[in-house]
Amino acid sequence: MTVQMKGQKMLLGGQWVGRDEVIEVRDPQDNSLIDTVPVASKDDAILCIEEAKEGAKIAASIPVHERIRIIQSAANYIEENKDKFAYMIAREGSKTIREAEKETARCIQTLRISAEEARRIQGETIPFDQMPGSENRVGYYYRFPIGIIAAITPFNDPLNLVAHKVGPAIASGNAIIVKPASVTPLSALMLAEAFEQAGLPPKVLSVITGHGSEIGDILVTHPDIRMISFTGGVEAGEKIIRKAGLKKISMELGSNSPVIVLDDANLEDAVESSISGAFWAAGQNCLGVQRIYVQENIWDDFRDSFVTRTQEYRVGDKQMRETDMGPLINEKEAIRVEKMVNEAIEKGAVLLTGGKRNGAFYSPTVLTNVPDECKLAKEEIFGPVVLLYPISDLDEAIQKANSVEYGLQAGIFTKDIDKAQKAIAQLDVGGIMINDSSDYRIDAMPFGGVKKSGLGREGIKFAIQEMTEPKVVCFKLTNQQL
Question: Which residues contact 189 (CB under 8 A, 6 or more apart)?
């Protein structure tokens, strides 16, 4: 399948517009040109927000049944064109075609859940007579949309992570402005087309393309933006918080996810789940398995099996169905990963397999004996690299798992319910997967972390909570017996 290069336009306030200055979107596999997108200016960003102010009023007035219809229609459009969406995900990003097909299917599911949750934005009655002197009062609260949401999205899930912000925003009656990653903007623009085909009123959704250095501050600091939904790195997230001012902020900032394998675990399941969790999307996954703590008496068997399976992982052309892993998003990122691995080896780490770079490709890599002071041990790798550690018992594993500044998700493999419960209670993370790797997620669950892994929760129902506010209504009744 090919997609004809035509110079894409961005969607600003219901209008598809181009600009003389463009960004070239290139395939990281061979650096071939896919298409171009406009470079938005500061004036474009301001115009986008002004249009969204009207869009917020329109969005809030859309009846719930119509929100449901629009979102379902967008999901149907994507399903009807799923091959085109999957091709674009695989072309502009790092995912193989099989990974891209799964992301497309998840996007459809994300939107359908959003449509369902639109009917469940409910309030509650409040017993005001619990307060002496308020016997003649009755009331309730309901949730109302906050207005305009700015969504800043990353490259690693260029369709579904956008849908995770757009679907709940529309379901809850908000306007939303999406700033997609400049290296993977095409999937987001295709999603906007799906909503346009579904009959979403103009100005409710905008997708503005360009450089974050040019338009990012406008979106973050503008007083009419009432919420920032950001997925990306810690450094960028901290800058946004310092600049944003008085508005709601939801952030998913990555991780350094641990997996614990105890001696009663199903070894085959632990290896297979952790391999997938480590190398999915070339390791560019916030939930990706980065550290694996293995009980000493099964250490040799796990290590040998894990290394063997890693060496069997097929790296190559993203569009070939037999390929397991493609390149990183660009050569610069592959060089960054290479430097982190080399630093660890220079400080005493042992390379068990991998450690080779070819352009933007970096081979699936496994290390052990990684010193605690190495960047690999402390920071998010965001690449296809896994660190193995032997541990004596669960207490040691929990202590080491909690030793980093991240806490998104973790995994533990054990048949002992007491040990699983101990890990649940003591691991400092936003989610823990029992007998699965840290990489497991469904789109309906609350998703987010603690410490430097973020603020708030995504997952449609929970994102809607973030994107709405409760309004209390109280009636003081007179001349009426309750």
Answer: 8, 9, 10, 11, 37, 180, 207, 209
Catalytic residue among 51, 107, 193, 286: 286
Question: Fold match between 10-253+453-470 and 257-434?
Answer: no
Region label for 455, one of left (φ > 0), alpha (ψ between -120 and 50) or beta (otherwise): beta
Catalytic residue among 51, 252, 333, 458: 252
Closest CA to 205 of 149, 142, 288: 149
Q: Does domain 257-434 have CATH number 3.30.2310.20?
A: no
pLDDT at 478: 86
Largest CA distance in the chain: 83
Q: Identify whether 107 is a catalytic site residue.
A: no
Asked whether the beta carbons of 182 and 216 are under 8 A apart, the reply is no
CA atoms within 13 A on the CB side of 296: 4
> Which amino acid does the sequence have at 391?
I
Query: Where do we find the tokens 């950001």?
Result: 230
Please check whether residue 251 is in contact with residue 273, taking contact to mean a CB–CB distance below 8 angstroms: no
Active site residue 322: no
Position 6 pLDDT exceeds 70: no
pLDDT digits 0-9 by tens, 122-153: 999 999 999 999 999 999 999 999 999 999 99
Report whether pLDDT(50) > 70. yes
Which of 321, 388, 333, 334 minimizes the C-alpha distance to 363? 334
The partner residues of 231 in beta bridges, in order of sequence, read: 252
Rounded-to-10 torsion of CA 452, 155, 306, 378: -30
Classify domain 10-253+453-470 by CATH architecture.
3-Layer(aba) Sandwich (3.40)
For the chain, the structural domain boundaries read 10-253+453-470, 257-434
Model confidence pLDDT, tens digit, residues 74-96: 999 999 999 999 999 999 999 99
